[in-house]
Amino acid sequence: MPFMLDSNQKELQIIKNTSILNGVFFDAATGPITTSRPAAILSTSDTGRVQTIDDSVTEDLIPESELDARYAQLGWLYPSKLPAKPWDILAPRNQRPTKLEIWGSRRFMVQRLSINISVQDLSPEDALVEALEAALRQRTSALRIRALREVFTTWGEMIPLNVVVGACMASTGKINGETILLDATAPSDDTATDHPNIPANEVPNQLNTHDRPKSLVDIVDQHLGTTGNFTRRLESRVQGGSSETLLKEGYDAWLKSVIDNPASWRIIKILHAVPITEILSDQLRDRIELLFTSSVILRSPSVGAPHAFNFDGAANGIRTIESITIWFSTSRIRDISVTYAGGTVAGPYSYGLSDLESQSDTFVLAPGEYITDLFVWHESEWIMGIQFVKSSPGLSPIYGIRTKDSISSRPPVLLSGNGNGLLGLSGAYTADGLSQLQAVWRGDVAIRRQRHTQTSCVGGPRGFVFNDLQHLADPATARIVQITGRAGVNGVAKLQTTYTCMSGGALVRSETPPRGSDDGRLITMTLDEDEYIIGVRGHHNNHGIQRMLFVTNKKTHPAFGADKGDIEFNFDAPKTSDGREMVLHYIAGKSRGWMDAVLFVWAERPLKTPGV
Which of 126-140, 166-180, 411-425, 598-612 has the lowest mean pLDDT? Predict the structure, then answer.
């Protein structure tokens, strides 16, 4: 008999008895998961949201992928049909799958009620608001994004608004070479008579009690007519009513358990849902949306010729880099390609497509590793060299220019993610090679033990390239403890830096090779355990460093190089964006008989301060 809404049956109670006010989390592998707690409350007392249906329907669906099939068997729209969420950028949808596999889902639904709620009828639970606000108070964008994702996992990502409630049998799996499921066996006349409210052509096949299968899967297949349809079964399920009754007593008894027990009804079809942010206040929703739109993808300044970009490092959405392939010569970077987890590849763009014999190398990241920084050497119209820094201690080779060759280039540029991981590379190219590069960073990754950096550079264009970062076993804990050099007539020579850091639980001490000639008197500057370089003073002549002295938090040390020079330079340690003090972390640059150029890399104080 039809279910009646009488004066004793409150709409609010019916709505609360379903899970429509609970958020739904979408697992990347298994699909929709209804959370265990309500995320929303009804904020109005309007009626008419609940309507009786009292009919049944059988639907056949042919999803395009296994994930679509998992959504279909639960009565959800396919992921591509759902409204976009602000955080979808963190999990880009794969390209349309090749139809190598065909999936099918047949669902028989006993529909009892429809519930239709407007988003204006809903307000968020106070605990949800508190959790979101706590997430937004995290110190960095990456930590805020991580905390929000945990909130969405707990409270759900979407709220259903328009649903069908009742009971359902469903069977889903991979089918063999057909784009339709085989038809169910037509029901007998007696079956249709037993269920006057269910159209005869929609009642699943009845079984003789003596022939009843022993497993629930067999029973569902028999009733749906899907026996033998699937080469691989995803799932057979029963929602609503009593599965035990179906197993032990058959379809009639199960249907009676559905009709007689409204408390057993479940949401069996979702016709419309919205992101959970839609039920929030405008202010809170805007803060969350702004975080994902402005903080997830970050871009460094571009390096090289000021041309319009030919390729965009964010074109494939938020993905994890597995490897980067570089095509190069001894004087320039020819081409580049980035391979992401899942097989997506960006590039090559020009040279790497036409010259298959050109020199190339692939820099591979281990699972969980990210690129945190890039060094780029360039001239006015082309990129000369590039070096990648990993989140676990380690660097790539310097691609392009060779450290054993004296080169002429503009000062090296350090493109730092400052705690973010590399997403991709934007840039421009010509037939000969790359002319411009820009690092694109993903703000959803919080890389631990990263010191934010800034740089200062002085000197001339020529020399042999060096980078002290390769000598630091653990950059997070590294500090300068000693510098030796010559007080020569012409300039700063024989410069050698000693670093210490913690690695493997032990203090590691490393010395760089001496850079420059033996001209002049040897000077050694040794720092106390709590002493850090906070400034550099000196002179240069546009070709090399003539004089250089270091200022620490304790004193000004004697100068290296000549007694005087032509052009003065003066660098003080900068501060981080949130006001924290920086110290000299390490140096890079060029040298020949003297120090031609120096890139001073400043960073926050070491995470641990080792003894000297």
Answer: 598-612
Distance (Å, rounded) from C-alpha 120 to C-alpha 83?
17
Residue 1: inside a domain: no
Q: Model confidence at 551, in pLDDT bands (50, 70, 90)?
A: very high
pLDDT at 446 over 90: no
Give the helix/strand (H/E) hosting 560. Answer: strand 560-561
Is 410 in contact with 463 (CB distance < 8 Å)? no
Q: State which H helix or E strand residue 223 sits in.
A: helix 216-224
Q: Would you say residue 188 has pLDDT above 70?
A: no
**pLDDT reported for residue 589:** 94
Q: Are residues 390 and 508 in the same domain?
A: no
Say yes or no: 134 and 189 in one domain. Answer: yes
Calpha distance 502→612 (Å, rounded): 11
Q: CB of 58 within 8 A of CB of 107?
A: yes
The answer on 426 and 348 residing in a single domain is yes
CATH classification at residue 338: 2.100.10.30
Total domains present in the chain: 3
Per-residue model confidence as pLDDT tens digits over 355-389: 767 789 999 999 999 999 999 999 988 999 999 99
* Cβ contact 372:469 at 8 Å: no
Tell me if residue 50 falls in helix, strand or coil: strand
Q: What share of the chain is helix, strand, coil (3-state, %, to 5)?
A: 20, 40, 40
Angle among Cα 207, 210, 214 to the nearest 5 degrees reads 80
Residue 497 pLDDT > 60 = yes
Single residue among 290, 321, 352 that ends a domain in this structure: 290
Bin 561: left if φ > 0, else alpha if -120 < ψ < 50, else beta: left
* Cβ(222)–Cβ(228) below 8 Å: no
User: Is residue 152 helix, strand or coil?
Assistant: helix
CA distances from 424 to 320, 340, 348, 420 (A): 9, 9, 13, 12
Q: What is the per-residue pLDDT across 50-105, written as a single tens digit (0 to 9) for each? A: 999 889 999 999 998 999 999 999 999 999 899 999 888 877 655 454 556 789 99
Q: What are phi and psi of 134, to 5 degrees?
A: -65, -40
- One DSSP character per residue, 444-488 reads T---TT---EEEEEEE-SEEEEEEGGGG-S-TTT-EEEEEEEEE-
Identify whether residues 262 and 325 lie together within a single domain.
no
Structural domain range at position 515:
451-612
Residue 3 counted as domain residue: no
Beta bridge partners of 524: 484
Distance, CA of 604 to CA of 581 (rounded, Å): 6
